[in-house]
Amino acid sequence: MKPGTIVLLLVSTLGCYVEPAYPGYVDEGSADLVEVSPGVEVIADWDEPIFFADDFYWAYRGGFWYRSGSYAGGWARADVVPDRIRGIARPESYAHYHPGGFVRHEPVRGGYASHAQYHATHPAPPSVHVRAAPQSRGRHR
After folding, report:
1. Model confidence pLDDT, tens digit, residues 40-67
2. Does residue 3 fall inside a structural domain?
3. In a 10 Å sphere around its CB, with 0-12 CB exposed, 13-18 middle and 19+ buried, how is residue 127 labelled?
4. Domain-located, residue 52
5. Which residue range forms the structural domain that includes residue 53?
6. Closest CA to 77 of 28, 33, 19, 22
7. How far apart are CA 67 and CA 79, in angstroms?
């Protein structure tokens, strides 16, 4: 084998997977979650529908469900998908989702704690369940 062959093989193998990135601004802790069904929330007014359930973020891409402990990246194809996620009809329809009564606010800098404090002092109308999107603990089953 010629010198450099192993490096070329390693680079070509590692270069196979490119994680789709969220095209907009992502400051971990700046997104709002709104409830769409019992135990399922979606990030409000997001370019891509990102759901939160069972301590994971979920995205439906190309006919497959992906999960991550963060809405900002780290997506892996999910082998096991909870019924509450699998049962979402037309998940793509939740892009830029706004429930009745939801009011978008400016991004809150400073991470989850600052964003959660914002919601504690600026409550949403009673008809809307809104909270700061947490960094998931990402339990593995």
Report:
1. 999 998 999 999 999 999 999 999 999 9
2. no
3. exposed
4. yes
5. 13-132
6. 19
7. 10
